[in-house]
Amino acid sequence: MRSEGFYVVFGRAVGRAVGAQVHALYRALRADLPPAVTDLGPGYATLYVEYDAERTGRTEVAAWVRRHLRAAQGGAGTGYADPGRTVEIPVRYDGEDLADVAARTGLDPAEVIRRHAAPTYHAYAVGFTPGFPFLGEVEEALRLPRRATPRLAVPLNAVAIAGAQTCVYPLPSPGGWNLLGTALRTLYDPNRPEPCLIAPGDTVRFVPVGGLDHPAPTLPPVRPLWPEAPARPALRVEKPGLLDVLVDAGRFRQAQVGMARSGPLDPRAAGLANRLVGNPPGTPLLELTLLGPALTALRDLRVAVAGFGMTALAGGQPVPAHSAFRLRAGETLRFRPTAEGTRSYLAVAGGLDTLPFLGSSSVDLTGRVGRALRAGDVLGVGLLAPTVPDLSPALLPPPGAEVRLRLLPGPQASYEALVALASAPFTVREQDRMGVRLDGPQVPGGQVVSEATPHGAVQVTPAGQPILLLGDRGRLGGYHKPAVIHPDDLPLAAQLRPNARVVFRPLVSGPPQGWARRWVLDPQGED
What pTM was estimated for this model as a whole? Predict the structure, then answer.
């Protein structure tokens, strides 16, 4: 799959009329989705349309969008599916930025609280993480920009502001908004019939409460992704690795509620592992990170390991890279880390037995859907009938000591930012399934009205540090995205190790003023 997309832009600022147009178009498109359209991401003033460029082209997708634009532009009512409810959220105003917000606005903390709680807010979109509501509008006196550098961890249920927006972080996650307090209702729980408390079009009121008599909610239970007692036990976890997670092709068409795409970060290696045992593309398998697990076979299995994070050891002997082999009942499969990459994939002929959620068996760690493997877990083998294995697939090229990534101009491309990205090597500071933080030259960044984040976007905050956005990225965000990784190089980005060196090579053609055109379909004219 090769993800591409574009934005339908209805405006440049937060406004209810514009928001209604966004959701009117979203509803019309959702009711007539072609198979190759993989997601729709409504924001405040834009709708991001993502498609698989291996199955369709921009011209065809743009024509489909234009056929439905009348619904968004010609008296489409409120634009929302329902009239909307009024949701009251009690808030304990104890946020760590409350005093700073008061100082920067020239108000005392009590007045900040009063002004934040006074309005009735409109829910424009849900995104970033599951159930995260984007609400507006904050009154002028409280409008402060996001932090120049986002926090690595914002606490559960934090109530925050940024510009004209306010929100609740329904799950712990990175974030750059200014924290005012703690919401005392559960906004997201994947175990409920309707996981998200707030939907676009709803009205939200914050109700101040005080004291410790109002405890904050705890994290919702994790929704399981595999049966606790599988019908056909296959693998028992003797010792978990650093991060072993179940993945399939990914969770598509769920951006509107903030669910991550998830899926394999290196789809090329995952696809190879499945082919080696004769599984169809997207069959559930395991993604292993840096340090693999110890797994005992509970029945005879045919398995395959592909990728660069580690070498498989069966019966104590190394297995050739990117190969399939027989694992006998009672044998334990172990892994030895390599210095070449980060992730490897373990496929079992017939697939793994799973309990899909929203059409996918991929773990979403932020969204509390599935979890990493633990000692004692038992995974079952599925009932897929394997085809003839591909015993001579093309070998994957190793990432190398210095990884070169090609860049395409992004939604907020500028000549200065692309020059800075190409000016010197960067070093991987931190990496996880959400993204890769880099140290290196300062890159011009900034903020925009929150919009969908393309797969592989290079996000740059005002502090100038680039972040490569991967499969578990937040689905809406408000920082500049001056570049995106070339789709063919995303597997290399997934294999970046801590402290690895990254060299960017921008692929640029035409004048700078034309770079944004590939990202925008203008509702009023030609794209």
Answer: 0.91
